[in-house]
Design brief:
With about 270 residues, the chain is α/β, with parallel strands linked by helices. Helices cover about 35% and strands about 25% of the residues. The chain has eleven helices and twelve strands. A seven-stranded parallel β-sheet has the order 3-2-1-4-5-6-12, sandwiched between helices. The longest helix has 16 residues. The two termini are about 30 Å apart. The relative contact order is 0.16.
Length: about 270
C-alpha cells in the first residue's frame, strides 16, 4: 500500500467527488491521501468516510489544497473552471499529475492551463469514459467521410442539476466533427434555436441540450441527409465509468513528461 500512488480528490462532497473517493478507496492500484473542499463547507475537518455516511478511513477533508497536493502523486478534479485554474497552479507546484474532468471551461480558461503544463502532467477531457472517447474518434471519421449534404447535430441529455450547456462531452464531439470536416467549430457551431430562426445553414454543427431527472449522460451524433440518417450513440447509466477513467488517467500520467494530454493519449486511440 505504501508504494501505491497517492490521490487527492477535489470537490469531495459533490456527486462526482464522492464517486471518485469511492473508486480510489476500492482500487488496489492507488490510495486516497487527501480530500479537498472549499472553506466553509460542512465536510471540512471531518473524516471523509464519516462525511460520506460510512466508517472512518483516516483521511480528513481540508480546505488547504496545497498541503494536500504536496502529499500526493495525482489530483483528480471535477469542480468548476475558476477552481480548476487555481488547482492547476498548486498541482504544478507539487509536481502532481492533474486530471481535469471539469466541464464548461472556455477556450481562454483552457489556454490558462498552459503554464502549469510546463511543470506537471495535465490530463484534461470533456469525458473520461472509454466509450465516449471511442465515439469521439468515430465521429471524426464519419464526419470526414460525409460531405455537407449531411447535417450534423449533437444531442445531449443530463440530469437537472447540470449547470453548463452544451456539455463538455457534446463540445468534444462537436470538435471531433469539425476536425473531420476540416473546419473550426467556432465558425460553424449553432448552439441555440428559438423563434423564427430561418432555415438551417448548410455546414453548421448544431447542439441540442436536454435537462431532466437523474439522467447520467446520453450523447447522440446525428448525421442527417435527404432520405437517410446515421446516428452514433453513447449512453452512460453509472457515473462510476467517469471515475474509473479518471483514475486510469491519474495512473497513466505517473511516468509521463510534463505536458497537456487528453484521454485519447491515455487510451492510445
Amino acid at each position: 500500500m505504501e508504494d501505491l500512488p497517492g490521490i487527492v480528490i477535489t470537490g469531495a462532497s459533490g456527486r462526482m467527488g464522492q464517486m471518485l473517493i469511492k473508486t480510489v478507496v476500492e482500487s488496489d492500484k492507488a490510495k486516497l491521501v487527501g480530500a479537498v473542499e472549499r472553506t466553509g463547507n460542512d465536510w471540512v475537518g471531518q473524516d471523509v468516510g464519516v462525511a460520506m455516511g460510512g466508517s472512518a478511513i483516516g483521511v480528513t477533508v481540508t480546505d488547504k489544497p496545497l498541503e494536500a497536493f504536496a502529499k500526493a502523486q495525482a489530483v483528480i478534479d471535477f469542480t468548476a473552471p475558476a477552481a480548476t485554474l487555481e488547482f492547476s497552479k498548486l498541482a504544478a507546484q507539487a509536481r502532481a499529475v492533474h486530471v481535469i474532468g471539469t466541464t464548461g471551461m472556455s477556450d481562454d480558461e483552457i489556454a490558462q492551463l498552459k503554464p502549469a503544463s510546463y511543470h506537471s502532467v495535465i490530463v484534461r477531457a470533456g469525458n473520461m469514459s472509454l466509450g465516449v472517447n471511442l465515439l469521439t474518434q468515430l465521429t471524426k471519421k464519419v464526419a470526414a467521410a460525409l460531405d455537407e449534404d449531411f447535417d450534423i447535430e449533437v444531442i445531449e441529455a443530463h440530469h437537472h442539476h447540470k449547470v453548463d450547456a452544451p456539455s463538455g462531452t457534446a463540445l468534444m464531439l462537436g470538435e471531433a466533427a469539425a476536425e473531420g470536416r476540416g473546419v473550426e467549430l467556432n465558425d460553424v457551431a449553432d448552439r441555440g434555436r428559438d423563434g423564427i430562426t430561418g432555415a438551417r445553414k448548410k455546414g453548421n454543427i448544431g447542439f441540442t441540450a436536454i435537462r431532466g431527472g437523474d439522467i447520467v449522460g446520453e450523447h447522440d451524433v446525428l448525421f442527417a441527409a435527404a432520405g437517410e440518417r446515421i446516428v452514433l450513440r453513447h449512453v452512460a447509466t453509472d457515473r462510476a465509468i467517469f471515475a474509473r477513467g479518471a483514475l486510469k488517467a491519474a495512473l497513466w500520467g505517473q511516468d509521463k513528461m510534463p505536458g497537456h494530454y487528453d484521454m485519447v493519449d491515455v487510451l492510445g486511440l
